[in-house]
User: What shape does this take?
Amino acid sequence: MKRSAKQKLFAVVAVAAILAGGTLAAVTAGKGDHREKSGPLATAAGYLGVPSSELRHELQSGKSLAEIANSTSGKSSAGLSAALLASAKERLARAQANAPKRVAALLKRVEHPGGRLAAAGYLGLKPSQLTAEVRSGRTLAQIADATPGKSAAGLIEAIVAARKSVIDARVAAGSLTQAKANARIARLKDRVTAAVNRQRSAANHPRAKR
Assistant: This one.
């Protein structure tokens, strides 16, 4: 689940936990992150008119939110409950309003092959076979030149084309500007060429260190 979705869900879960008695864990969870500034702790502190840090200290001393609210002049547990529920409903309303856009983006998302998949496809190998070859210490260029009917130059073109399709798709989806896309494409062949000629041994392969 994405971070923003977690934040939206957090308010509802926290309110439910508070009403069930899990006050401290629910309200102070995620200490130090964005939720402290906009989540249930901030809402409760705002209603009570105290800093979030002071409210957390009160909770950690063993008091419940209801006890703190009822002992605060002009406040009550009922009023605090209403404030927390209103905040949760507002978060849900925002999540619901954004849902159509998120769903539409999800339906339009297309997964594109990465460089290693494009290389395997060009060479007629399974990704696992190509990985084994690379782990043995051979460069992608060496593997391509040793494959009948293939070449390092052809491999570079195949990977460049695959990565360019990913960039073009991001531009079409609106997640990347054309200017940035052009800058990336301009550097693409040099980067792919360097990667194809880079040697990786079993000793320095990331998955070899376990």
Observations:
- The mean pLDDT is 78.
- The two ends are 27 Å apart (CA to CA).
